[in-house]
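Q: For a teaching session next week I want to show students how multiple molecules come together into a single three-dimensional assembly. I've collected the sequence lines for a complex. Could you give me the predicted structure tokens for the whole thing so I can convert them for display?
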Amino acid sequence: DIQMTQSPSTLSASIGDRVTITCRANQSISTWLAWYQQKPGKAPNLLISKASSLESGVPSRFSGSGSGTDFTLTISSLQPDDVATYYCQQYYIYSWGFGQGTKLEIK
Amino acid sequence: QVQLHESGPGLVKPSETLSLTCTVSGGSISGYYWSWIRQPPGKGLEWVGYVYYVGSANYNASLRSRATIAVDMSKNQFSLTLTSVTAADTAVYYCARERSHGSGRIYDYWGQGTLVSVAS
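A: Of course. Below is the structure for the complete assembly, covering every listed component.
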């Protein structure tokens, strides 16, 4: 199985900050990577597919990049509504696996 | 708009069987893969298994001997049965739709989740 590792595990930032979350695969997955946002007490919500394609309705302050083994999720200007745990998921080789999550807090 | 809703008991005794149902509305179960994903309290997401609308299923290797996922197209539902549960099976259980993308699949619609506690 492909292992996905996210860093950091927890991130504290101020409103308006640029925030970057990293996801690393232990082998190349091309750009077959998705990002999900899970707000407290809620189900995960698909934000980005194919490493950089924003889903409909997702604010433009979110962006994704990367290919191969290294990927990033960036929030250009952190908003209070962005408090959540973020997960990456590879879908290059079955079985699709999630990273362990990055919890984003407001400083 | 596709909606998924999980239902089932919130408390199951150790060694007994956990049974959950996911009802799909606003769209057909036909043509898609449907998954169960669980999340132990305070932890990350763990894929349990999936079923294709025609009935073929696959499971997380760690649960394969205990899990069964089935589909009922007439009711637009799919279900999860997990036998011989222990406290380690305590989790929020989500049902989700898998959307094909390239040769892989991503989860584009999720239920709100249901907490199942295993305790005597």
